[in-house]
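Input record (Table S2, row 142):
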Amino acid sequence: MRTFVLIKPDGVRRGLAGEIVSRFERYGIRLVGLRIISMGRDRAEKLYAVHKGKPFYNDLMEYITSGPVAVMALEINLPAEDAIKMVRKVVGATNPLNAEMGSIRGDYGLIVSENIVHASDSKESADYEIPIFFNESDMVKY
Ligand code: IDP
Ligand code: MG
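Output record (magnesium ion complex):
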């Protein structure tokens, strides 16, 4: 299945993009789309629509639009549920304090509001999030 991962502004700013990409590659997860972009407010609102109204929403909008992000489409040879589980495991728990060492957030994160990466949490969210950033023709097959 295909899923979506985004390296947040702190990840790009800290020069962790290559390291994060390689964390996925080493499992045999294939990168089928990759771009560095400045995400405008419109796309940020779309990506985080489910969090609108939550106490951290405004800070999240500020932060996610504060600098360039890297967007990735990943192809994983697993059934959807397992693929999502795998990616979320590589990423680690939302709060870096709870994320296991060896996960991206566990190894590089300090606080929940700057937790380095975003990853789709279900097949439904992957199908919603990928088209916000990629056209079908932007992604390769190999
Ligand atoms: P996830 O990124 O692990 O899927 P979500 O619950 O979907 O976590 O939250 C989306 C993002 O919102 C988180 O990655 C984090 O950056 C931010 N966030 C979530 N909960 C809090 C909070 O309690 N305080 C500040 N930021 C939060
Ligand atoms: Mg989420």
